[in-house]
Amino acid sequence: LNYSVGIVGATGAVGKEIRQCLETRGVLDVDTLRIFGSERSAGSTVETKYGDISVELFSEEACRECDVVFLAVDGDFALKHARNICEGDDGAVVIDNSSAFRYEDDVPLVVPEINGKETKKSKLIANPNCTTAIGLMALWPLIQKFGVVKVLMSTYQASSGAGQPGMDELTSGTKAYLEGKEVVNKIFAHPLPFNVIPQIDKFQENGYTKEEMKVTWECRKICNLPEDTPISCTAVRIPTIRAHSETIVLETEKDVDVAVARQVLEEAKGVKVVDDPESLSYPMPLTATGQYDVEVGRIRKSIAFGDKGLEFFVCGDQLLRGAALNAVLVAEEMQENGALN
Ligand code: 2RA
After folding, report:
1. Rg over CA atoms, the chain
2. Domain count, the chain
3. Within 10 A of 78 (CB to CB), how many other CB atoms are there?
4. Which residues have C-beta within 8 Å of that of residue 324, sequence separation ≥ 6?
5. Is the CB of 218 under 6 A from ligand 1?
6. What is the domain-level CATH number for residue 29?
7. Is the CB of 283 under 6 A from ligand 1?
């Protein structure tokens, strides 16, 4: 079976990566690729492995003609159109990258390596927040082996989390700073060059930001953990381009043997253990950028939690594992399990 695949928002940072993942992986049987955009981009041409493609003006009807549609657009747009695109037997499967449907009971929130089977339940699938998807690649295999009592996460998140405008603001701001000019910030709450900003997304009533609460809500849903599992996060923006880093402290139910934990991570799909302090080898945004696998290192027994705790550091490409790659893996999983037919 060959599929007609649509991308909405293909000219944005995530949309571009979705197209490139489809092209370079070559696992999803793409017969036709259709690219949908706004009036501004409609009519322009995108060079792809599937030929030169003319960007079509977005419409729900045109998207419904596809077998699968990737939405790389904002939550308001997704809320307005996603369910209409997938409604009924003749609707398309929709894989939505926004947060619009992540917490809806009837919409699976999927990291294919963890809960890929959920994709059989619905034609609308939500892609997780990048911070959650990257962290869970390492957390999930450890949780399966040792159980989970508590998770404490601190993040160091790249400018790409705010899309191409975020990366552009960091690059032009850095140049301006070095030239002694004024650093303008429109995307981030403060100038990002040579700074760290302990705020991503809006503050909530409980003092956490929305980005931090996404980690709590999404980890529980994807791993099917009890609603009150204590998972907390401090999310910080740092001046890197496109790989998020995370310090994770896991309190476990069972005693942890660090060698076994390392073995578990070495065998986990989508994970690359980079952990040799002697050779100064550990995960870093520079090495994780452009990689499908998430790097995990600095693996050690936790002083805070003794035998029942592990601490480690994770870096993953925000646009790939945190967005586009996860979405494409969802489609590949659905091709495999028959949910696309
Ligand atoms: C960020 N997690 O890094 C967000 C993007 N989804 O800003």
Report:
1. 20
2. 2
3. 24
4. 14, 17, 18, 20, 21, 72
5. no
6. 3.40.50.720
7. no
CA of 312 to the centre of ligand 1 (A): 21
* pLDDT tens figures, 254-277: 999 999 999 999 999 999 999 999
Q: pLDDT tens across 158-171, in order?
A: 999 999 999 999 99
pLDDT at 256: 98
Rounded CA-CA distance 204/202 in Å is: 6
223 shares a domain with 110: no
Ligand 1, atom nearest to 131 Cα = 2
Note the pTM of the prediction, 2 decimals: 0.96
Scanning the chain, the segments in alpha helix (DSSP H) are 13-25, 60-64, 75-86, 112-115, 130-146, 163-178, 210-222, 258-267, 285-288, 325-337
> What is the mean predicted confidence (pLDDT) over 195-224?
98
Residue 310 and residue 180 share a domain: yes
Question: What number of other Cβ atoms are within 10 A of residue 62's Cβ?
Answer: 17
Tell whether 282 and 143 lie within a shared domain. Answer: yes
Mean pLDDT of 16-39: 96
**Confidence at residue 10, expressed as pLDDT on a 0 to 100 scale:** 87
The verdict on 288 and 212 lying in the same domain is yes
Read off the amino acid at residue 117: K
Cα angle 55-48-322, degrees, rounded to a multiple of 5: 90
Residue 264 in tokens: 């578990």
What's the mean per-residue pLDDT of the chain?
A: 97
283 & 327 share domain? no
Fill in the DSSP letter of residue 322: I
Same domain, 170 and 221: yes
**DSSP helix/strand/coil, 95:** strand
Q: What is the pLDDT of residues 62-115, one digit of tens each?
A: 999 999 999 999 999 999 999 999 999 999 999 999 999 999 999 999 999 999
Q: Are residues 141 and 271 in the same domain?
A: yes
Q: Are residues 92 and 141 in the same domain?
A: no
Q: Which domain holds residue 117?
A: 3-128+323-337
- Of all protein residues, the one whose alpha carbon is nearest to atom 5 of ligand 1 is 161
Helices and strands (H, E) in the chain, number of each type: 10, 14
